[in-house]
């Protein structure tokens, strides 16, 4: 597959060579030069420098291709000005068409995606990278879908029926890193009671996903670089050289370029890993995808929990659409599972985790000021504001009470020294179902 778009190729580059082929040749040249023994060192250095320049130029082409794409979608988004800008209708259709085109090309994606231009760009890059064996670096905040994207790249390539091995580089203690990645020989160190193969060997012919690559200590980086260059490994404590053919996809939530400038990440490894670079936007930068994700996860949770998809009150829906999601898609997914588990037919703000739940009184009083309460009108008078606040305080009191007694109305009535039927009436007034709190207690219990 040719990675660059012929139409966008500068006139000076007319060769139909693919990125994959070109970069591979350069890399062969670089390693040959690096290990050559019959040239004088100054000559080797000079040639190495030239090769590095050449590689950077090739990577520049890739950037240019992305720039052209980004510019055309930015143009589409900006829409109005300029002679070359497409008409408004065209502008609106473009992302939809890009999305449609991906689906028509049978692009496999195990999730959902809408028309967000930045996400579409990431998916298009992944689609082009998938059939090559080029290393891919995926960056984005935690929970933006990096691992999912790595699986998508694997699934759309020729290694799809081969292993996909995931390694969290941040979760392995330094002392075990080498053995985890490359395996060990029996007796190599205390506790090595058997021969063991490492993740690279397990990923042979398939894909190895190196998550949180920015956490890899410098010693590990050197070893990884060697594998990338030679496609060979040695188990700890063994002299035997084993060839491995694993496609590398790495992910990070750090800025590796900055890290390499600061000397904490090897620059040569960074270039090796980031031949193709995919950036996933934070969820707050693709708010337009939220409605789709809400219904996707609500269906997913419903089928897992064997229930009907949960309905959302307008104010909860409004909250979900405007919330910032520091934990990105993972947080949204967890929220939808939580709501589906805790709520009866319909979920409301009460079923949100305490730490993100908008304060009810504040919400009612300043309803029209905050986005989360945008569906609630500003009270017309002070007395109405007071009444609304008191209502909300009553509601919050009842919900907290029910939470504490695990949804047993009789127990709450006893604790508050209230008439049970009066309490029932108040619950009814607020549309609170005691059974929702029984579920809540079970769910909280099952977590620990
Ligand atoms: N576009 C999407 N559609 C559906 N689910 C998604 C999407 N993106 C991410 N997810 C889900 O969100 C969760 C977090 O994604 P993950 O790939 O683990 O993120 P990261 O590796 O960046 O922390 C996973 O459950 C993943 O399946
Ligand atoms: Mg992850």
Automatic annotation (TrEMBL):
Comp. bias intervals (Low complexity): 72-85
Chain segments carrying region Disordered: 72-96
Domain Sigma-54 factor interaction residues, every copy: 112-341
Membrane spanning residue stretches: none
InterPro entries tied to this protein: AAA+_ATPase, AAA_lid_NorR, Homeodomain-like_sf, P-loop_NTPase, Sigma_54_int, Sigma_54_int_dom_ATP-bd_1, Sigma_54_int_dom_ATP-bd_2, Sigma_54_int_dom_CS
UniProt KW DNA-binding keyword: yes
Transcription listed as a keyword: yes
Alphabetical keyword list: ATP-binding, DNA-binding, Nucleotide-binding, Transcription, Transcription regulation
Signal peptide: none
Gene Ontology MF terms: ATP binding; DNA binding
Pfam (any one): Sigma54_activat
PROSITE patterns: SIGMA54_INTERACT_1, SIGMA54_INTERACT_2, SIGMA54_INTERACT_3, SIGMA54_INTERACT_4
Example GO BP: regulation of DNA-templated transcription
Organism domain of life: Bacteria
Protein name: Sigma-54-dependent Fis family transcriptional regulator
Species of the source: Cupriavidus oxalaticus
């Amino acid at each position: 597959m040719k990675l660059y778009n012929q139409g966008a190729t500068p006139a000076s580059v007319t060769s139909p060579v693919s990125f994959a082929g070109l970069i591979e040749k350069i890399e062969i040249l670089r390693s040959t030069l690096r290990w050559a023994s019959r040239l004088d060192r100054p000559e080797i250095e000079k040639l190495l420098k030239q090769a590095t320049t050449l590689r950077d130029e090739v990577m520049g082409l890739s950037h240019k291709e992305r720039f052209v794409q980004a510019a055309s979608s930015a143009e589409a988004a900006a829409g109005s000005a300029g002679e070359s800008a497409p008409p408004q209708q065209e502008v609106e259709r473009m992302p939809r068409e890009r999305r449609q085109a991906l689906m028509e090309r049978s692009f496999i994606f195990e999730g959902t995606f809408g028309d967000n231009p930045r996400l579409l760009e990431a998916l298009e890059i992944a689609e082009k990278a998938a059939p090559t064996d080029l290393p891919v670096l995926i960056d984005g905040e935690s929970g933006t879908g990096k691992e999912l994207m790595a699986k998508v790249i694997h699934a759309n390539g020729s290694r799809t029926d081969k292993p996909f091995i995931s390694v969290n580089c941040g979760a392995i203690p330094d002392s075990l890193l080498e053995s985890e990645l490359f395996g060990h020989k029996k007796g190599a160190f205390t506790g090595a009671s058997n021969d063991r193969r490492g993740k690279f060997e397990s990923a042979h012919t398939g894909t190895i996903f190196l998550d949180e690559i920015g956490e890899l200590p410098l010693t590990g980086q050197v070893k990884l670089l060697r594998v990338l260059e030679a496609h060979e490994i040695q188990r700890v404590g063994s002299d035997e050289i084993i060839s491995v053919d694993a496609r590398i996809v790495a992910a990070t939530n750090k800025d590796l370029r900055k890290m390499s400038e600061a000397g904490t990440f090897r620059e040569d490894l960074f270039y090796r890993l980031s031949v193709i670079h995919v950036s996933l936007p934070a969820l707050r930068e693709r708010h337009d995808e939220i409605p789709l994700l809400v219904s996707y996860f609500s269906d997913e949770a419903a089928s897992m929990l064997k229930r009907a998809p949960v309905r959302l009150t307008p104010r909860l829906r409004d909250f979900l659409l405007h919330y910032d999601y520091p934990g990105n898609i993972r947080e949204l997914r967890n929220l939808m599972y939580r709501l589906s588990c805790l709520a009866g037919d319909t979920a409301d703000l009460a079923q949100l985790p305490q730490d993100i739940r908008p304060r009810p009184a504040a919400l009612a009083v300043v309803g029209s000021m905050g986005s989360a309460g945008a569906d609630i009108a500003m009270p017309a008078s002070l007395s109405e504001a007071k009444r609304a606040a008191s209502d909300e305080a009553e509601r919050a009191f009842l919900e907290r009470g029910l939470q504490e007694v695990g949804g047993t109305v009789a127990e709450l009535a006893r604790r508050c020294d209230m008439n049970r039927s009066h309490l029932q009436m108040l619950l009814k007034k607020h549309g609170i179902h005691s059974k929702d709190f029984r579920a809540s207690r079970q769910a909280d219990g099952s977590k620990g």
